[in-house]
Fold this sequence. Notes:
Elements: H1 2-10, H2 13-16, E1 33-35, E2 41-44, E3 49-56, E4 67-71, E5 86-90, H3 99-106, E6 110-116, E7 119-124, E8 133-138, E9 151-159, E10 163-168, E11 177-179, E12 184-192, E13 199-207, E14 212-218, E15 224-226, H4 231-236, E16 239-244, E17 248-253, E18 262-273, E19 279-295, E20 299-303, E21 308-311, E22 316-324, E23 330-339, E24 350-355, E25 367-373, E26 376-381, E27 390-401, E28 407-414, E29 418-423, E30 428-437, E31 446-456, E32 462-471, E33 482-488, E34 494-496, H5 501-505, E35 509-515, E36 518-523, E37 532-543, E38 549-556, E39 560-562, E40 570-577, E41 588-597, E42 603-612, E43 624-629, E44 635-637, E45 649-655, E46 658-663, E47 672-685, E48 688-696, E49 700-702, E50 710-716, E51 721-723, E52 728-737, E53 746-755, E54 765-770, E55 776-778, E56 786-793, E57 796-802, E58 810-820, E59 824-825, E60 830-839, H6 846-874, H7 883-894
Parallel strand pairs: 2-9, 11-19, 21-29, 51-60
Antiparallel strand pairs: 1-3, 3-7, 4-5, 4-8, 6-7, 8-9, 10-12, 12-17, 13-14, 13-18, 14-15, 16-17, 18-19, 20-22, 22-26, 23-24, 23-27, 25-26, 27-28, 27-29, 30-31, 31-36, 32-33, 32-37, 33-34, 35-36, 37-38, 37-39, 40-41, 41-46, 42-43, 42-47, 43-44, 45-46, 47-48, 47-49, 50-52, 52-57, 53-54, 53-58, ...
Amino acid sequence: MLLSIICHHLKNPFYANCLLSFFFLPAFCQGRIVTVPAGPLLRVEGTEVTIPCNVSQYDGPSEQNFDWEFSQQAYHPQISYAADSVHIASTWDLSFTSQQYKKRVDSGEIKLRRKSNDTVELVIGRIQPIDQGLYKCTTPSTDAIVKGNYNAMVEVKVIADGLTVSGLKVRSLSPRSLLEGESFELRCAASTNSSEHTHLYVIWELKTGPAWQEILSLTHEGKFQPGPEYEERYQSGDVRLDTVANDIYRLSVSQALPMDEGAYRCRVSEWVKGADSSWQKIQEKSVDIADIVIQPTVLGVFLTRSNMSVNMRDSLDLICNITTDRSGIFEVEVIWYFSESSDSTLPDARVLLSVDRDSVVSDSTLVSLSHVDRNSYHLLVRDVGTEDSGYYFCQASVWVLQHNGSWHKVVERTSAPVSVVVMALEPDYQVFLNASKAPDFSEDPTELECRILDVQNAEANVRFTVSWYYRLPLRSDDVVIDELLATMDTDWTLVVGDRNKRRAQNGEIIFSKPTVDTFSLRIQWTSETDRGDYYCIISAWSRQRNNSWVKIKEVVSTPVSIFWPMQDYALTVEAVKLKPFFMAGHTFEMTCKVSSQNIKSPRYSVLITAEKLLADQSNPNGTTRIISLNQDSVVRREDWTDQARVDGVVLEKVEANEFRYRMYQTQISDAGLYRCVVTAWSPDGGGMWREAVNGLSNPIQIDFQTSGPVFNISVHSDSPTVYRGELVNLLCIIAIEGVTPEPGDMSFDVSWFAVRSFALDRAPVFLASLDRKGIVTQAKRNWSSDVSLERISPMEFRLRIYGCEDQDFGNHYCSNKMFAFFLYWVLNDCSFFFSLSPLPVLNAFKYPLMIGIGLATLIGLLSCLIGYCSSRWCCKKEVQETRRERRRLMSMEMD
Length: 895
């Protein structure tokens, strides 16, 4: 019923069905939950008691407040909390504490300790019998709706302290010091007379520093539990915990170690099983038992010999002596070591031989170990070699027998090393180095021979190897640096230095051994970097008994200087223009002549460059690289990008030191300064070439003074007046003035036009054309006459008009264009006019008649003028002129 009411007030569809799902989802309608430990809580008088209280599933702020109350009424499930409860403390109300608890709360004996927002602990410093009773934890409501429980109670019972802990003296320990390896026992008495059923937890602890470490414990559940450092010793039985009678707990340690030194104590805690069947610790006490001092076993290990030297093939004899203060049953283990370093702690020390605690000696052919007496061990190494030079030391260990039959290492010491030098029998020999071939010039071969002379005292197992060195000559105040060219191993494997490794692989430097006592160094092509001093070192190696090789002697030869007088390379390049006069359309031709000095077997690479007078968009301010020819005569076009003249430039080798450059069909844009850039190459060995020196020629200028030749055109016809139907021949003749190009370098484009007017006031009409390729093009004609155009000589072109008609009259002219190299225009159009008037037969008498009439009229007028003048001035007196007569004369004249 209560659940239904709560769900109804929530006004939530989810909770509206909570009654139906009460048996399935009870947690959805469960409210605030306050929990305390399950009671009763059994606590010992005088100990500190902590009672936690936790709240969950609440609304409101995350940090909750708590109130603690106390009642001395015994807890009963059917009886509610007593009304005479006393307020102890509150986390939010300072005035909550009752008067009888105020003093204990103010002094801190009773306090509240917050662990989190929803957990608070009630802490009672020293609980008393009067504190036995019911404790209630209450949380004030912060929820919007009251739901769940807001308090919880727990009963606390206080019992009297019945736990006693005491220590017993160490058996046979006077004073409290032990020798390493001895055994000792420690005892602790612990008992309780508590009225409740409690269990004891006994722990033995050792303090060697600031903290206590657990040795071995017997838990309240009757289990033995060793500490982390004593796990192995507990398993082996060296550390044990026994119970003697009912109240005594004994710690037994056999074979005491230095780590066992320190203060020992026994810590006992009392445990009781709570209402929830969990174990709770109700009190703990400890007692100091003893301070133990472990005196380590004294072990001295030393060698009877100091630093010594032994001749090769002799025997090495060493003795290791051992001293100890150990008594009783013990055994000694000895191990002999060898190391190339004086530090005997190095992990790379090599074991020579050993004898274990059972006196068993490890096997070895050339090394033997004997036990002279109880404290002396003899090492003998036969047939020593130089590889036996080093440091020898022995290591001794003392082992004691444990009660379970196993052996335990008590102490271990290592002797100081003794230095042993094995003296090799050095052979006596001399080394002579000479230059069998010395260079007189760069790229000449160099050959050095290093010989072994006057060999004495050399055994059959001695082998000679060589090392070649180079020394660069420096000034007196500079540091001399020697460079290793190559060295030879004992198996005559050649190891070449890094700088000359590539040259040796290419065969430029050859290291060889032509004879038993001779080593050779040959430089196929000596360069300037090879100038300097050379010397060789002959090393003598001796084979050891393990088939290894040891260097026993080195002899250095006298240096040999490889030097030749050096002269600077000289290179001269001269450019020559083959044609003194040049114009556009011609072929430009120039040669580059090269001469060099102090270069052996040179080859040349040539590059043609141009400094254009006209700006180039791709290279407006720089030099253009046109074409190049390398030292192997491979041609390459550099920056030549004119697709119309892709093969317009040619560079070829005429002689060993002469090169010719040609540029066909030159244009005005090619004007500029042309040079030859020549590089001299010298053989560098292995088919490679080395750049020696560069040279630049004098400039050759291409300058076009005129745009091209000047030519005149004349038109000629034998009969400028023709009749209808006649054949007309018109000749266009070209005359060239100035520089005349080669006939093969010129071509013409000729076009004929006609103007159908004597006054030339009409547009010209195209008749026919002949282009530079010889193709004739005619205009479409609407009458019966026809035309043809042909080239009758290199400079003459003929136009023929067949069957002239009236439409063919007018002024005729030809227009020419001259081409050079078929692409570039040289001259503008030139033309010459010629008048052509065809006359028909019916109109043949018109012109004579008109001429006759004109001449008669002119003569008549002249006669009238003469008569008039004569009558006026010559016959003036005889004639009386009257007005009337004059009118007659006028009439007569009119007639």
